[in-house]
Amino acid sequence: MKREERIEAATRPQTWDMLIIGGGASGLGTAVEAATRGYSVLLLESHDYAKGTSSRSTKLVHGGVRYLAQGNVSLVREALHERGLLKRNAPHLVRDLGFVIAAYKWWSAPFYGIGLKMYDLLAGKLNLQNSRYIGKAEALKLAPTLKKDGLGGGILYFDGQFDDSRLAITLLRTLEDHGGVAVNHAPVTGLRMDGGKVVGANWRDDETGQTHEARARVVVNATGVFVDDLRRMEDPAVRPMLSPSQGVHVVVDRRFLPGDSALMVPRTNDGRVLFAVPWHDHVVIGTTDTPVPDVSWEPRALPEEVDFILGTAAQYLDPAPTRADVRSVYAGLRPLVKAAEGTDTKALSRDHVIRISAGGMLTLTGGKWTTYRRMGADAVTRAAELVGLPRRMSLTEGLSLHGATHDDLPEPWKVYGTDAERIQALPGASVRLHPELPYMEAEVRWAAQQEQARTVEDVLSRRTRALLLNARASADAAPRVAAIMAEELGKDGAWQAEQVQAYREVAAGYMLPGGVFSADVVSREKMEIRSV
Fold first, then answer.
1. Integer Cα distance of 258 and 56 in angstroms
2. Rounded Cα–Cα distance for residues 362 and 350 (Å)
């Protein structure tokens, strides 16, 4: 479906059963839940699907070992159950991943081993693989760059790994498969009220500037860290719900953690856990937990956060990555629900929260990717009760998501599942976008044709993961991506030049100081594009 057809579907005179605002994990999960129950659904996303927090995770589908240590057994049990369901429903996106907890003190292995046995038990029938003790030789075989001095073995346990923004796009395709309508680059500009009740929203198509309205029986606010902005559209004096915090990750070459296992540091100097995770032939290391006073679409890592991650990694890895080895650094904001004054954000629960406003708008926030399905199910059930929609059973526990397959496809095709064969038939299926990136030109065409990619950033950040794997290489690839998208979307040279410049400004924020493109490089690329 072309964008014009999608806009037409979104603007037909009708009252939707549910209008969902926000295209991240919670919004897409809620939309899929509603559509599969047979409700009519319109989802509006102001920028792009998973543009915010939902594309900036640690890439883990997990129960949360730290929450078990905090005694939040019910949250861990729920998350482990959802972990198992997600692996079953999206096998092309989720895989088992072994985590090594290295023991450098005599008590470490038995202490963490007991807790992880409870972790296995809480997973029940959906457990991945049982945790076990490992000796020094096996620990080094699984994680060859672990520091050897003082290493006494450790624990091996299992969680899931996934690609967050690819799951978001998979949910988008699943929503469309079940009759839902979704539009990105479509910000809500105001809520529609009738007799003190929220009955819809006004929104704008950012590509044409045209404004539209959508009426619905219930409006769901699923805008992540921005939920308070939407709540203020109904009541400017409403008290904020959130106390957001920032989590930072750095991405380095695979040589710093070769092998197929991840490393988990159970307690850092600030009391968090830290992961080093192999992902798309790179290693993601993080995360931090820094309270932030304001939210933004492009949060930036603080120098001390990067130093903390690299410093902690250096305590365990040899060789250890330095700032010069960082290919990309990214920051995401967590929508943590406010607690008592002075509460440390790392102590706040990731449980999701549903609140109903005086005007009947349902706000869903909190939670994490692993429990997106449960969040959506709870929100749809509550929304249907709120406005008297017919009661319908949830089907998503056993719902195979779009493209689901157990076929073991190679990179970069695996994340597309059953769509991979169609993409491989497109022009450029064997032409790389850049020598240091795994992605092919055909993926850009597919993203524009089938996945609602409208900008170079949409492609390089979220349809592929080029921005996170290697920010500089992704910026080098931007002109070719712009040219392919211009072919697919009918855009001109001026559009290409604007897209490349805009993307490079974004990519500069993912490079450590010294990685910003100079003005003469940007100017030269603009000249080259205009001559195409």
1. 23
2. 19
**Kind of pairing between the strands at 245-253 and 262-265:** unpaired
Question: Would strands 181-183 and 41-44 be described as parallel, antiparallel, or unpaired?
Answer: parallel
Of 522 and 381, which is predicted with more confidence? 381
- Most distant CA pair in the chain: distance in Å? 71
Q: How far apart are CA 277 and CA 299, in angstroms?
A: 22
C-alpha dihedral (206, 209, 211, 212), degrees to nearest 10 = -50
E strand or H helix at 352: strand 352-356
Q: For 10-27, give one letter per residue: b (16+ CB within 10 A) or e.
A: bbeeeebbbbbbbbbbbb
Tokens of 516: 């910003």
User: What is d(CA 50, CA 490) in angstroms, rounded to the nearest whole number?
Assistant: 25
pLDDT tens by residue, 318-369? 999 999 999 999 999 999 887 644 444 344 445 789 999 999 999 999 999 9
Could you give the percent of the chain with pLDDT greater than 70? 94
**95-102 and 262-265 beta bridge pairing:** parallel
In degrees rounded to 5, what are phi and psi of residue 478? -55, -45
Whether omega for the bond prior to residue 396 falls within 30 degrees of 0, making it cis, is no
Which of 410-419, 450-459, 505-514 is least confident? 505-514
Q: Residues with Cβ < 8 Å from 43, sequence gap 6 or more? A: 19, 20, 21, 22, 23, 27, 28, 31, 175, 180, 181, 182, 183
Task: Give exposure, 405-444, as e/b (b: 16+ Cβ within 10 Å).
Answer: beeebeebbbbbbebbeebbeeebbeeebbebbbbbbbbb
507 pLDDT above the threshold of 70: yes
Give the list of residues 6+ apart from residue 357 with CB closer than 8 angstroms, or none.
198, 231, 234, 235, 238, 363
Whether residue 319 is preceded by a cis peptide bond, meaning omega within 30 degrees of 0, is: yes
Beta bridge partners of 19: 42, 219
Q: What angle do CA 244, 76, 353 make, to 5 degrees?
A: 40
Residue in 140, 126, 131, 100 with CA at minimum distance from that of residue 113: 131
Phi-psi region of 209 (alpha: psi -120 to 50; beta: other; left: phi over 0): left
CA pair distance 447, 451, nearest whole angstrom? 5
Tell me the pLDDT band of 518, cut-offs 50, 70 and 90. Answer: very low
Residues 513-528: what's their mean pLDDT?
A: 43
Q: Give the DSSP H or E segment for 527.
A: helix 519-530
Per the CB < 8 A criterion, the answer to whether 251 and 469 are in contact is yes
Res 127: pLDDT: 93
CB 278 within 8 A of CB 240: no
What pLDDT is recorded for position 272? Answer: 83
Instruction: Give, as one character, the DSSP assignment of residue 400.
Output: P
Residue 106: the pLDDT is: 85
